[in-house]
Amino acid sequence: MSKLRSIVSRVRPAVVLPLAVAALSTTVAQAQYTAVWTDNFNTSMATNKSSFEYNNGTRQTGVIAPAGYTQNPGGGNDHHILTGTQMLITGDTVNQYTSIQPQANFSGTILGSQITGKEITFSLDLNATTSAGYTAAGISLGSAVGLNLLDAATTHFGVKFVEDGPTGFNAGNFIQFFDGSTLVQNLLPFTAGGAGAFNVDLRINDLADGNPWDGVGSTTIDLYVNTVFISSYTKGGGGYTGNYLTLVGERGFTTGPGLVAASHTFDNLIVYAAPVPEPTTLALAGLGLAGFFAFRRRSV
User: Fold this and answer.
1) Is the pTM of this model over 0.90?
2) Three-class SS string for the chain?
3) Which residues are 101's β-sheet partners?
4) Going residue by residue through the chain (300 aa), what tens digit of pLDDT does each one get?
5) Per the CB 3.0–4.6 Å rule, which of 36, 150, 265, 268 could disulfide with 125?
6) In 3D, which of 207, 230, 200 has the Cα closest to residue 13?
7) CB-side exposure of 194: number of CA atoms within 13 Å?
8) Does residue 278 contact residue 27 with C-beta atoms inside 8 Å?
9) How far is 47 from 67, CA to CA, in rounded Å?
């Protein structure tokens, strides 16, 4: 299954089905994903203002652009540094973390026909200025309110990438999934860690109706790193109902081993949209799933 996921191109299924039922979901497989908001963080000069030149016509693109940024009160402007080509987020010296958020809820529709926030991609280089100790950074999404840390108590999904070297607890590189403050997956393999920048790809869907943000069905989030499928998480009970994104950087510990000043590099943040699935397409997908599970029962 993971091999099938890894070969899906930018023109990918809105619902990834087993090969046995792929023929029943041709319309789904042809759904075209479109970049509707991008930020390359390119500015004419280095600055500590996260919203500098955000509306200059070249830094942000897409039908939703431009969108300024909100930052957490604990981290001053000097912890969000635009170098001219990318964004550095340095963990705050007091609160250990710093976070910023585009001032947009990527959960609606574009022109009434495309659901935004069906995929989110960006590049990340953990702890870009030092290689020792415990450092972490990542993204939270699916929040219906403002700034959300990766492991805050409010409703959202968080992905935390961790590099923990010999001056920390020496746990190596791994990934954590959070549903609010609940750690739902831990120590996921992360072979890309410690080797410079890597590409993060979050593909988001609702297998029931194709809309992961409508409070109906569920929200499923698949994580890929450098095109390799890592893991998946499904939020039931209607799923997530908003999609404010928050980029977060952590600096390590204020006490104990691994006290480091960690500056993480984020670049090329992109939000994609996809067409609203037609009812007939969803029906075909449902038939395919039913047939697949029936086949599995007969095969056991």
Assistant:
1) no
2) CHHHHHCCCCCCCCCCCCHHHHHHHHHHHCCCCEEEEEECCCCCCCECCCCCCCCCCCCEECCCCCCCEEECCCCCHHHEEECCCCEEEECCCCCCEEEEEECCCCCCEECCCEEEEEEEEEEEECCCCCCCCEEEEEEEEEECCCCCCCCCCCCCEEEEEEEECCCCCCCEEEEEEEECCEEEEEEEECCCCCCCCEEEEEEEECCCCCCCCCCCCCEEEEEEECCEEEEEEEECCCCCCCCEEEEEEECECCCCCCECCCEEEEEEEEEEEEECCCHHHHHHHHHHHHHHHHHHHHHC
3) 70
4) 333 333 333 334 333 333 333 333 333 433 589 999 999 999 999 998 999 999 998 999 999 999 999 988 655 566 889 999 999 998 776 667 889 999 999 999 988 899 999 999 999 999 877 666 788 999 999 999 888 889 999 999 999 999 887 777 778 899 999 999 999 999 999 888 777 899 999 999 999 999 999 999 999 999 999 999 999 999 999 999 999 999 999 887 655 655 667 889 999 999 999 998 876 554 445 544 455 444 444 444
5) 265
6) 207
7) 16
8) yes
9) 18
> Is the distance from CB of 69 to CB of 75 less than 8 angstroms?
no
Tokens 């086949």 found at: 295
Q: Distance between CA 221 and CA 224 in Å, rounded? A: 10
The contacts of residue 59 (CB under 8 Å, 6+ apart) are: 39, 40, 41, 42, 43, 53, 66
Q: Which residue has the tokens 């990834």?
A: 16
